């Protein structure tokens, strides 16, 4: 399978019409459209370390969640934003594909995987301006905020911050990554709590009194999709070797 064929297959699996309007992703670095893909590195972010690891490991392609190039480039130098990564990838002829918000919302994507990790049932999507922003589902059993935070930590393997409440929590809204901007819509859903990756303090202050909020980390709530993405690529071409690279920058004690 060539790099353009792989992207075309992923484009069908995670269609662009499910992306947030104006989002940036796709096949961003391509050095030979007819080149066979044999080694794919999967990561959330193409950090400098991830780029160097891909080159050193002989990977021909990186499939990432967040785009390497998000704004028009006026220069590519070792000292400009993203320059060191782009130069390293060009030297190693490493193609890059990113699948951003469409991977969040598509079947088998970030939110689907997060719902499975949390063992939610009776799942339905919630929408913001016609965009499938997240999911709503029932927990395996009613929990206190402390119990849900501990449950989330156990399932995700990382700390979960929360706002306190005295009410039991059964039905929750979830959104992997930065779901804070969807709070106005979530507050109207009638759910018992909102579980997401990050929320701005100004929104936390505004909504916490009426809606219990659980903040589990942007990276931590999105990395759950990488095994699913590896499985998808393996099903497309069993001859492609895939490896997951942890690009997380934050370390928890």
Low-confidence stretches: none
What's the SSE pattern?
HEEHEHEHHEEHEEHEHEHHE
User: What is the helical fraction, as a range of percent?
Assistant: 25-40%
CATH topology of the largest domain: Udp-n-acetylmuramoylalanyl-d-glutamate--2,6- Diaminopimelate Ligase, Chain: A, domain 1
Q: What quaternary form is this?
A: single chain
Order of strands in the sheet with most strands: 5-6-8-9-10-7
Describe it.
The structure is a single chain. The chain is α/β, with parallel strands linked by helices. The protein has 2 domains: 3-103, NIF3 (NGG1p interacting factor 3)-like (Udp-n-acetylmuramoylalanyl-d-glutamate--2,6- Diaminopimelate Ligase, Chain: A, domain 1, 3-Layer(aba) Sandwich), CATH 3.40.1390; 107-221, 3-Layer(aba) Sandwich (Udp-n-acetylmuramoylalanyl-d-glutamate--2,6- Diaminopimelate Ligase, Chain: A, domain 1). Helix content is 32%, strand content 23%. The chain contains 10 helices and 11 strands. Strand 9, helix 8 (201-207) and strand 10 (213-215) form a beta-alpha-beta unit.
Q: How would you sum up this structure in a few lines?
A:
Helix 8 links the parallel strand 9 (193-196) and strand 10 (213-215). This protein is of the alpha/beta class and 253 residues long. It has helices at residues 3-13, 48-56, 83-91, 101-105, 110-117, 145-156, 183-186, 201-207, 218-222, 226-236, and strands at 26-29, 39-43, 61-64, 95-98, 121-128, 131-143, 161-162, 169-175, 193-196, 213-215, 241-244.
């Amino acid at each position: 399978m060539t790099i353009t064929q792989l992207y075309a297959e992923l484009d069908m699996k995670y269609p662009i019409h499910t992306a947030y309007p104006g989002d940036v992703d796709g096949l961003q670095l391509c050095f030979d459209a007819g080149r066979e893909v044999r080694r794919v590195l999967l990561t959330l972010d193409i950090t400098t370390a991830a780029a160097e690891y891909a080159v050193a490991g002989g990977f021909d392609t990186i499939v990432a969640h967040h785009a390497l190039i998000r704004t028009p480039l006026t220069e590519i130098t070792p000292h400009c934003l993203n320059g060191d990564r782009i130069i390293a990838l060009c030297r190693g002829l490493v193609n890059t594909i990113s699948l951003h918000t469409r991977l969040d919302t598509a079947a088998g994507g970030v939110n689907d995987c997060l719902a499975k990790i949390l063992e939610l049932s009776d799942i339905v999507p919630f929408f913001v301006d016609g965009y499938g922003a997240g999911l709503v589902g029932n927990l395996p059993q009613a929990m206190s905020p402390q119990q849900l935070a501990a449950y989330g930590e156990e399932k995700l393997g990382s700390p979960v911050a929360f706002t306190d409440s005295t009410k039991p929590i059964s039905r929750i809204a979830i959104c992997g990554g930065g779901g804070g901007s969807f709070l106005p819509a979530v507050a109207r859903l009638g759910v018992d709590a909102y579980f997401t990756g990050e929320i701005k303090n100004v929104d936390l202050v505004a909504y916490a009194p009426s809606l219990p909020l659980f903040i589990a980390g942007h990276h931590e709530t999105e990395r759950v999709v990488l095994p699913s993405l590896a499985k998808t690529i393996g099903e497309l071409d069993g001859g492609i070797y895939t490896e997951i690279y942890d690009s997380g920058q934050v370390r928890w004690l």
